[in-house]
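User: Reviewer 2 asked us to show a designed sequence for the structure in our supplementary figure. I'm pasting the structure tokens here. Could you produce the per-position amino acids so we can include them in the response letter?
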């Protein structure tokens, strides 16, 4: 079994290098910075990488463009509210404190309210990334991913309809008691879900969901149990020759202090991941099975003569 990692010695090299690594791994930011909901790579050259980031601030979501300018020393992170909009420029100094310089620039020389608001959320992101970089054993030691897969003969469109339309979930998924949500024109959903615990207690969980295309939903709860720092979820649907697969993928960033709080001072990473897999995996499979049933009921309603034997049990 793997014991919980111990904190490395605090030297300039051991602190700065993890900060550099986590700043370079933009796709890991949603796990280690609360405001970052999702990232998408847009383009890359030898000198510049460009990403789209979805950021949450006060239950509102905005899409920003991030440029990593690796040709500059130190590397510059340029956050823009739009492709050509005002920018917040960040440079980390390579010293023991992992200090950060932030400059706010605007094409017209005026710092707008949008730019100032972006600077606030950027400072929070950088602070949380630096804290995560210093986790005992490095941030990667605390990340756990698992997948559940269900096959159906229903259509991709019907499966995705269930995954997207959250009003269908209460009564369709055993642990979901109530859902309130709003969806904007870009498929961004601001959600509040009341979940039933095994003991009958109710827990209200706010989250942000992004409906990407016609076959994928990614989401991030804004609150998580003490054992975790973050949870990223994804529902995806894929058409095959004779069936459709529905996949639930979950990535959890464990919290060292929370693991010890929940499981005791002698807790192991394996024990923490087993707990997460058992609790979250049950809810994941319940959701996948409900999406499968919805799609197959819809299929049968179109062809009442279709038997469940012909649908199969896969």
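Assistant: Here is a per-position design you can include in the supplement:
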């Amino acid at each position: 079994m793997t014991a919980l990692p111990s904190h490395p010695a605090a030297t300039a090299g051991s602190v700065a290098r993890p900060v550099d690594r986590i700043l370079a791994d933009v796709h890991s930011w949603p796990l280690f910075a609360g405001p970052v909901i999702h990232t998408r790579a847009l383009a890359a050259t030898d000198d510049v990488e460009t990403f789209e980031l979805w950021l949450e601030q006060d239950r509102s979501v905005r899409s920003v463009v991030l440029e990593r300018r690796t040709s500059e020393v130190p590397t510059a992170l340029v956050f823009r509210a739009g492709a050509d909009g005002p920018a917040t420029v960040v440079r980390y100094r390579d010293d023991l404190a992992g200090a950060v310089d932030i400059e706010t620039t605007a094409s017209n020389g005026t710092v707008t309210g949008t730019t100032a608001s972006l600077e606030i959320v950027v400072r929070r992101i950088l602070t949380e990334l630096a804290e995560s970089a210093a986790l005992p054993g490095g941030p990667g030691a605390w990340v756990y991913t698992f997948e559940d897969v269900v096959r159906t003969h229903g259509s991709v469109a019907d499966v995705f309809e269930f995954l997207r339309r959250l009003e269908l979930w209460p009564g369709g998924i055993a642990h979901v008691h109530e859902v309130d949500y709003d969806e904007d024109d870009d498929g961004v959903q601001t959600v509040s879900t009341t979940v039933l615990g095994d003991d009958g207690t109710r827990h209200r969980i706010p989250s942000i969901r992004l409906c990407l295309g016609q076959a994928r939903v990614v989401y991030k709860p804004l609150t998580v149990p003490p054992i975790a720092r973050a949870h990223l979820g994804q529902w995806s649907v894929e058409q095959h020759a004779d069936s459709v697969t529905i996949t639930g993928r979950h990535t959890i960033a464990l919290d060292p202090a929370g693991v010890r709080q929940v499981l005791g001072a002698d807790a192991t990473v394996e024990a923490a991941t087993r707990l997460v897999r058992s609790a979250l995996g049950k809810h994941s499979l319940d959701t996948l099975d409900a999406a499968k049933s919805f799609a197959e009921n819809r299929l049968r309603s179109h062809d009442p003569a279709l038997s469940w034997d012909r649908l199969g049990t896969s």
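For the response letter, you might also mention the following. The domain at 12-133 is CATH 3.30.530.20 (Alpha-D-Glucose-1,6-Bisphosphate; Chain A, domain 4). The first helix runs from residue 12 to 24.
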